[in-house]
Amino acid sequence: MSKEKTVRHVCGISGGKDSAALAIYLKQQGRVPEMEYYFSDTGCELPETYDFIDRLEAYLGKKIDRIGSEAPFEHHLFMVGGMLPSPKQRWCTVKMKLEPFEKFVGTDEVMSYVAIRADEHREGYISTKPNIHPVFPFIHDEITRKDVFRILDETIGVPEYYKWRSRSGCYFCFFQRQEEWLGLYDNHPDLFNKAMELEKFNPNTGEGYSWIEGMSLSQLLERRKEIVDLATKRRKDEDGRSWQEILLEEGEPDDQGCLVCSL
Ligand code: SF4
């Protein structure tokens, strides 16, 4: 007698606001009690992200599986000859997020709950594997950015990194702006130094690998005043609002990069 295959329901938590709000929303609605939560931990996330995941886990009252790559980032970096990941060479997302997810799912039939909102037009990672079926509750229920902030305000709050950074992801993520790199330097100098040590860049020839195209992190520090002045001017133009307020009123920055990592 053949046994009927069970469909799994999974919800990926990135450390960003939308996926956390989706998990909370579905719990509050009493939908999908058998939901499995997972977090693709690169091992290089911000301390604020780990705190946020812990807070969410406590609220959900259910374990969030940490399903990162078996090998650390440094191993993958070695395997690609020290070539730092970049927008054009995004091996980090494949090795540290997508492959662990597809291994977690295996060949099971899976409904994958994705936190894309009703007020945005972007795509998260949607697997092409035939056994993974995406579900979009926020789009279906017309949940927008304002609802997401309300859900978080009423429960676990927003991630602390919003004080100095616009999105979750690895501490060295190449999608961050120059002022956010300075925020990393101010808030986590040890992590900034680690990122600096991974660079192999010749400032005279411009050859090698740096996190910011054409500029090493030590050069970034030398240009600190100029970068801060520019960012301050932009803040003034934006009425001195924090990232949280900008995100709430206007949405994600145009240079929104890693949707797998920051949804
Ligand atoms: S957060 Fe950035 S560095 Fe980390 S895996 Fe995603 S794209 Fe790569």
Automatic annotation (TrEMBL):
Transmembrane segments: none annotated. One of its GO terms (molecular function) is catalytic activity. It comes from Desulfolithobacter dissulfuricans. Residues 10-123 form the Phosphoadenosine phosphosulphate reductase domain. This is Phosphoadenosine phosphosulfate reductase. Pfam families: PAPS_reduct.
